[in-house]
């Protein structure tokens, strides 16, 4: 079914409707200004008659496009005027009452008899705007006559679909022509060549844009064989911004499925290594453009800790890109055949048509499919356009449209994509074109984008009976169904645009939408209406001033850089005040992730503002003037962790629809919240003790949807107030959180809490419920009622006084149940399961069950139904229940993970669980441990602090033949491992804090050739390790007596596959480390090895090259004297970190030639190092840190840093003993490539002269710390490129840098961001 809409209907039609519907129309007639408005309407109507033809011809005729853009620009101005009139009229009407509104509204129209100064000013401004618009509209109407535009050129209606079928998964049945491609690539990935060759194989799919590379990668990623073959998978969209830090962060987050706040590449790569270590992983890097091999080398450095057979799959349009990365031949993806195009086209275009219609349209459809040139993206967009159109006229119009024949030399937009846009309904055109403000491959959320569309006024066409948000979701789903949007990695909430689609949006809206990225401020046109901006670390918003003369700007949208989404981007109060005072047409303002603590009161000037996003900022308060934002629809304050109060009169924002305040520190809600009757989203409601809104004020907010969390329910004075809130009537809520916060509750309070909770019964539509810190003695009667058929998630946390559980087994859809912290629950009995007919099976849908910290729980009365009372339970966790005895459920048929921690009295058999894979036991009875042998399917076992481990371990290792990972921790009785050996498939073995364990037997791997990872920690009696030739990773920590097995002859290799070796505070007998015996080593770490004296390479192996070695860390090794004689032959080494090695006298020799790939060198507290080696440092070096190496500092004249063309970061730090007062003139040649310079800990330094700082034209960050005698900057000044100046513990310098009055201020006044002793100073 389609919503009827003529093709000719346009953005002007929407504007004309607004003019007609204006509340000023009647008054305009009375005051004779209707003549002007009438002329506008007539002129616009005449122009609208040629719009269809103009939109068609703009693609090839530049004059038409210029005219059309000018018309759109003027339409924006007219809309602003109408909106301002409309706002004033509604506000006056609201303030003075409906009866007075007609007379008072006269002041809104330009008249010259009004005496009110405000009215005079308003009238004058509006009069000038109206005259200007009239002149420009007349000019545009005349220019129309000079263009070859025809009136009445119409077309077929392609309206919006009312109902759309959507899916969150890749539906392979909808993909044609790629089966053979998929099978070939999967076969190659899983072949012996891939799994037996390089540790990590890199495959690439190469093909032109729109050909289906991403889709092919997606179906490979979701293939069952691939999923089963790899232990872990990750998908990352890279795009053309090859930011190594950002991409590494995205890879890490994709593997871990959680956000990471680390910022430095070193920390991120370390975490990524830990995540990948000894795992066979599959990583897709989608849409690569990088042609710099050095960038790829840095990115892939952590990959090689993965298990043999790991795979990276790259998609790219560029064969050069593929050649840099691949270890296997590229797979060239060809275009679809005409028949494959037709099958894909017909499947989507004929989705809802009957067979007769399909037959009639087939011949036309085949011709259209042939014109798509074998590109699936083009096929899908046109098929989405024609879906369910049953008449030949529409199909023939698309087939014969002249856009197919337009040359596209001037732009890269494919004709078929232009066609798809051309036939979109007006609303969809505006919504789609707006998306060009996002960067390519930007991941956006449906909910947020719809709120932006709503704020911009694109969704005014919604029908009675539906909300504007529902209409927005419909628009979004229509664009999705037509392939203008694509799901991001099968997500239901995140989406992206294909590059070619993004190019189309950018072409359409290039005059009005602008993305500020990098140094583009000179390109900003005064005509733009919508702008986004992406900031980078250490960049300050100098560009803000570039917007100050764009008075008509409607959108100012912050998009955090994905490599650093933390607030470190400063915006001064002066700049923000200037912006808000100037950009008075703003409808959307986002300052998310900015380091702003307050908003200026001038926010009240933004009368048009509909959307304000201050989320993830340290803002502490909002100005009271914010209540003047009459039109505000969306206010985002999520994760404003310092926000404690909202404006007292915030209830006056009666048009507010979405208020997100989760993650704040609010102490109460403002009064009169009940006035905000349009609210659809209210994430949090906090009850003050004696002030603020009562919970009963929620009664008037009947449209609430999504999530509502109510905090401090102990402050409800009367349970009748809870009933008044009418939570049960809020049928659109999906998630409800009910929280108390009073640890000093008394008996009477317990009764009150129970009464309040009883009256907060939600609607049966609720899907998720959380009850926290509830101190009532019993749960409410409604909890567990079968009527809650939609409940899938339930958490009962810290309900410490409830001695019994509600009948939760009756919740037929419940999937996740968590019961945490209870001080009185002694028995989980039959009441937990509920009552039902004889066929009733409790917990029929439950997948995860958690019991945690239930201090007096003793008995679990299992239901005992046939097939088990938990037929679908996948995960069971019982933690810190020290008195639990008796039985566990007998049969859990699909259980895959079981965790029992600190349940010392539990002495029963483990459940029968034929599907179990992971088992974790800590402080359990020997009976529990003994029953492990009856679970042969276990692949991962962790045992902690169980006394009987020595007795039971032989049987366990014998029976668990599928075991792949084994960890034994804190087992004080473990003195040895069984001689019989390890299970044949075991890959990882970890032993921690087993203090009497003396040896690992030589025969423990007699039946095992799979062990790849061995981890030993805090085993202070352990002396010997067996030779395990299959090892790829070996870590030994705080086990001083362990002797590392080393061969006596150079022909023997005990470690042919070892890639990672880490020794910390262990192996006391090791004095010299033979690097040559570790030919595959990639990462080497020695920490706190007091007896280590040297690294060496035997004479017979001097010519070898340790090509696999990527990183070396040597820390706290006080007796280390030397590296191998002749140098360290590691041509691929990227990082060398040496710290606190007091006796080390020199760095590795011939570094400039042997370590040609070295990028990062860190030397700290090595006082005996006199100089850099002969020949200097490697030219590839990008980061150098020299800290507390006074002898090396004395030879600084010979460093030759100016010869390092890649150096970006330099840190030089002295010590307390350092006597350096100034840098000699010979040392002023720092490389001009420096981005960041840190000068630290020179207590006698008085001058920075002679450093040549003014010549560092790329320097953006300068840090000076602990230079207590320094009091001035160089006479020549600091470079103009500086964005950040950070001064720490320099008291004399601080005093002379006081703003506007310090003697040094003029030298630094040009720097946008200055931090002085922790205090941020911002220049406007």
From TrEMBL:
BP terms from Gene Ontology: defense response; response to other organism
Alphabetical list of InterPro entries matching this protein: Apaf_helical, LRR_dom_sf, LRR_R13L1-DRL21, NB-ARC, P-loop_NTPase, Rx_N, WH-like_DNA-bd_sf, WHD_DRP
A Pfam family hit: LRR_R13L1-DRL21
Keywords for the protein's UniProt record, in alphabetical order: ATP-binding, Leucine-rich repeat, Nucleotide-binding, Plant defense, Repeat
GO molecular function annotation: ADP binding; ATP binding
Domain of life: Eukaryota
Identification of the protein by name: Disease resistance RPP13-like protein 1
């Amino acid at each position: 079914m389609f919503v009827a809409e003529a093709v000719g209907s346009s953005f002007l039609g929407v504007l004309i409707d607004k003019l007609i519907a204006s509340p000023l129309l009647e008054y305009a007639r009375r005051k004779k200004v209707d003549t002007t408005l009438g002329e506008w309407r007539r002129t616009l109507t005449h122009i609208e008659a040629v719009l269809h033809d103009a939109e068609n011809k703009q693609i090839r005729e530049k004059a038409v496009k210029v005219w059309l853009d000018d018309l759109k620009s003027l339409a924006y101005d007219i809309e602003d005027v109408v909106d301002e009139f409309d706002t004033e009229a509604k506000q006056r009407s609201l303030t003075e009452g409906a009866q007075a509104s007609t007379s008072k509204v006269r002041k809104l129209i330009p008249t010259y008899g009004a005496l009110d100064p405000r009215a005079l000013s308003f009238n004058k401004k509006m009069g000038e705007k109206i005259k200007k618009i009239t002149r420009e509209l007349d000019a545009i109407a005349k220019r129309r006559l000079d263009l070859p535009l025809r009136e009445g050129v119409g077309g077929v209606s392609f309206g919006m679909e009312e109902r759309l079928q959507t899916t969150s998964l890749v539906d392979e049945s909808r993909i044609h022509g790629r089966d053979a491609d998929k099978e070939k690539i999967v076969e190659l990935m899983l072949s012996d060549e891939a799994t037996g060759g390089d540790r990590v194989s890199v495959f690439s799919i190469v093909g032109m844009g729109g050909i289906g590379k991403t889709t092919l990668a997606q179906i490979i990623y979701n293939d069952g064989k691939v999923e089963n073959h790899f232990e872990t998978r990750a998908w990352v969209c890279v795009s053309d911004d090859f930011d190594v830090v950002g991409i590494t962060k995205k890879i890490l987050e994709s593997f871990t499925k959680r956000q990471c706040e680390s910022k430095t590449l070193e920390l991120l790569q370390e975490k990524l290594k830990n995540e990948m270590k000894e795992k066979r992983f599959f990583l897709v890097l989608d849409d690569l453009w990088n042609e710099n091999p050095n960038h790829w080398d840095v990115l892939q450095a952590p990959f090689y800790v993965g298990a043999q057979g790991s795979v990276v799959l790259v998609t790219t349009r560029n064969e050069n890109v593929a050649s840099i990365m691949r270890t296997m031949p590229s797979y060239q993806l060809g275009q679809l055949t005409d028949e494959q195009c037709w099958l894909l086209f017909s499947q989507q275009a004929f989705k809802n048509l009957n067979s007769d219609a399909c037959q009639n349209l087939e011949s036309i459809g085949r011709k259209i499919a042939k014109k798509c040139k074998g590109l699936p993206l083009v096929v899908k967009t046109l098929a989405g356009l024609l879906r369910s159109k049953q008449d030949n006229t529409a199909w023939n119009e698309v087939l014969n449209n002249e856009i197919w024949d337009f040359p596209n030399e001037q732009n890269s937009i494919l004709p078929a994509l232009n066609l798809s846009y051309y036939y979109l309904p007006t609303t969809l055109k505006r919504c789609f074109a707006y998306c060009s403000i996002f960067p390519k491959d930007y991941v956006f959320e449906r909910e947020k984008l719809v709120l932006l569309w709503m704020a911009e006024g694109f969704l005014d066409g919604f029908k009675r009976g539906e909300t504007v948000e529902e209409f927005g979701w419909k628009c979004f789903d229509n664009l999705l169904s037509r392939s203008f949007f694509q799901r991001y990695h099968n997500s239901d909430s995140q989406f992206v645009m294909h590059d070619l689609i993004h190019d189309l949006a950018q072409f359409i809206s290039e005059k009005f939408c602008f993305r500020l990225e990098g140094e583009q401020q000179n390109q900003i046109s005064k005509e733009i209406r919508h702008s986004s901006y992406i900031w980078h670390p250490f960049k300050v918003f100098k560009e803000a001033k570039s917007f100050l003369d764009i008075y008509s700007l409607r959108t100012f949208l912050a998009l955090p850089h994905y490599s650093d989404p933390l607030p470190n981007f400063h915006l001064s109060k002066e700049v923000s005040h200037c912006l808000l005072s100037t950009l008075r047409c703003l409808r959307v303002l986002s300052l998310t992730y900015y380091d702003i603590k307050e908003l200026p009161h001038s926010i009240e000037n933004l009368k048009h503002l509909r959307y304000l996003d201050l989320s993830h900022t340290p803002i502490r308060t909002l100005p009271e003037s914010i209540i003047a934002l009459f039109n505000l629809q969306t206010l985002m304050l999520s994760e404003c962790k310092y926000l404690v109060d909202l404006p007292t009169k915030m209830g006056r924002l009666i048009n507010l629809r979405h208020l997100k305040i989760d993650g704040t520190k609010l102490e109460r809600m403002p009064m009169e919240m009940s006035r905000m009757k349009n609210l659809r989203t209210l994430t949090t409601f906090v009850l003050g003790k004696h002030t603020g809104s009562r919970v009963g004020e929620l009664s008037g907010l009947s449209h609430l949807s999504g999530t509502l969390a109510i905090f401090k329910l102990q402050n409800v004075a009367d349970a009748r107030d809870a009933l008044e809130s009418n939570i049960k009537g809020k049928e659109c809520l999906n998630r409800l959180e009910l929280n108390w916060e009073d640890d000093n509750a008394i008996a009477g309070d317990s009764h009150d809490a129970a009464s309040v909770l009883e009256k907060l019964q939600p609607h049966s539509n609720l899907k998720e419920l959380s009850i926290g810190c509830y101190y009532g003695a019993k749960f409410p009667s409604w909890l567990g009622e079968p009527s809650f058929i939609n409940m899938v998630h339930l958490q009962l946390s810290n309900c410490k006084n409830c001695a019994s559980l509600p009948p939760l087994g009756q919740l037929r859809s419940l999937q996740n149940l968590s019961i945490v912290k209870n001080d009185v629950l002694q028995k989980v009995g039959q009441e937990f399961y509920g009552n039902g007919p004889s066929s009733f099976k409790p917990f029929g849908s439950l997948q995860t069950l958690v019991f945690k910290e239930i201090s007096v729980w003793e008995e679990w009365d299992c239901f005992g139904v046939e097939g088990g009372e938990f037929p679908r339970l996948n995960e069971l966790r019982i933690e810190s229940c020290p008195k639990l005895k008796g039985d566990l459920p007998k049969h859990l048929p699909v259980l895959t993970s079981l965790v029992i921690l600190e349940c010392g009295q539990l002495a029963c058999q483990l459940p029968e669980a034929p599907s179990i894979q992971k088992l974790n036991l800590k402080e359990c009875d020997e009976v529990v441990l003994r029953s492990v042998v009856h679970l042969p399917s276990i692949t991962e076992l962790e045992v902690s602090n169980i006394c009987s481990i020595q007795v039971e371990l032989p049987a366990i290792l014998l029976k668990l033949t599928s075991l792949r990972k084994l960890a034994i921790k804190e087992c004080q009785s473990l003195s040895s491992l069984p001689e019989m050996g390890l299970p044949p498939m075991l890959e990882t073995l970890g032993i921690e804090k087993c203090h009497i364990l003396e040896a690992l037997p030589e025969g423990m791997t007699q039946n095992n050739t799979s062990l790849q990872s061995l981890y030993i920690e805090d085993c202070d009696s352990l002396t010997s390790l067996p030779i395990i030739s299959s090892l790829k990773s070996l870590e030994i920590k705080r086990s001083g007596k362990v002797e590392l097995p080393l061969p006596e002859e150079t022909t023997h290799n005990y470690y042919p596959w070892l890639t990672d070796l880490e020794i910390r505070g262990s192996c006391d007998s090791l004095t010299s480390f033979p690097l040559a015996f570790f030919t595959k080593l990639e990462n080497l770490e020695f920490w706190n090895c007091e007896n280590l004296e040297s690294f060496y390479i035997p004479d017979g192996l001097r010519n070898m090259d340790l090509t696999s070695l990527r990183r070396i860390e040597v820390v706290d090794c006080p007796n280390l004297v030397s590296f191998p004689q002749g140098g360290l032959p590691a041509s691929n080494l990227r990082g060398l970190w040496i710290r606190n090695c007091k006796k080390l006298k020199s760095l590795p020799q011939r570094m400039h030639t042997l370590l040609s790939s070295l990028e990062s060198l860190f030397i700290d507290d090595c006082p005996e190092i006199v100089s850099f080696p002969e020949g200097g440092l490697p030219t590839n070096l990008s980061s150098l840190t020299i800290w507390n190496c006074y002898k090396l500092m004395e030879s600084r004249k010979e460093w030759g840093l100016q010869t390092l063309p890649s150096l970006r970061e330099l840190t030089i730090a002295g010590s307390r003993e350092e006597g350096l007062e100034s840098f000699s003139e010979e040392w002023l040649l720092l490389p001009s490539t420096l981005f960041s310079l840190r000068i630290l800990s020179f207590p006698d330094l008085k001058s920075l002269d002679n450093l040549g700082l003014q010549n560092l034209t790329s320097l953006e960050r300068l840090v000076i710390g602990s230079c207590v005698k320094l009091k001035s900057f160089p006479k020549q000044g600091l470079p103009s490129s500086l964005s950040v100046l950070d001064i720490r513990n320099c008291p004399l310098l601080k005093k002379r840098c006081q703003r506007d009055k310090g003697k040094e201020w003029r030298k630094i006044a040009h720097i946008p961001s200055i931090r002085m002793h922790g205090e941020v100073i911002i220049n406007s």
